[in-house]
Amino acid sequence: MASPEGLALVDHLVYATADLDRGIGEVERVLGVRASLGGQHPIWGTRNALVALGPSSYLEIIAPDPHNAPPSEGRPFGLEALGSSRLVGWAAKGSGLTNFREAAAQHGVELGKVLSGRRKQADGTVLTWKLTDLRCVIADGIVPFFIDWGKSPHPALVASRGATLVRFSAEHPDADRVLRMLRAIHVDLRIGVGAAPALIAEIDCPNGRVLLS
After folding, report:
1. Vertex 14, ends 195 and 69: CA angle to 5°?
2. Looking at domain 10-162, does it have CATH number 3.10.180.10?
3. Cα–Cα distance between 170 and 48 in angstroms, integer?
4. What is the pLDDT of residue 125?
5. Which of 47, 128, 195, 208 has its CB surrounded by the most CB atoms within 10 Å?
6. How far is the C-alpha of 62 from the C-alpha of 41, rounded, in Å?
7. Domain boundaries, the chain
8. Assessment of whether the complete model's pTM goes beyond 0.90
9. pLDDT for 119-130, tens place per residue?
10. 56-85 residues labelled b (16+ CB within 10 A) or e (exposed)
């Protein structure tokens, strides 16, 4: 990653919540920015709302969609058993994901299958993408999944504006092991030792410089 703050690879941060309206309100209180509605993911039984964090990165607030049943294996990000809302994972920018997945496996990092996704935006635009398996949670979500938007416009272009990601880091009880995994797949993420796994985003916004985790 080119950025000294570890931001160049960040596509989006995932803030999971049991209820989308509640999550939108929580994020608005922290950032002073109200997320714009994104759309539904029928195959996962989820829906989302977005806040741009830059020209090609954003915060995704994701929640169960009451109008779409979950798949047999359950919704991603542990939404069924989620307690309080929090950052549960993040997506890194990727391309050539099949080859990248195979290379990662050779270094002992199993990213899961490469899958396809799609959703319709509020303006009717249909977005399509490729991504590594959301359910392949590695190091409690500190190791990212990877996404390739292909020819689709990036969702940050139509997301609510007013926030900028200035630093992104993580904590984990076994930080050295996680750091070795990140280095094996060429991800430069600051990580320190913490009592529990955590993703920490430092964001400039109308409320000043705040932390979201």
Report:
1. 115
2. yes
3. 23
4. 84
5. 47
6. 10
7. 10-162
8. yes
9. 888 788 889 999
10. bbbbbbbbbbeebebeeeebbbebeebeeb
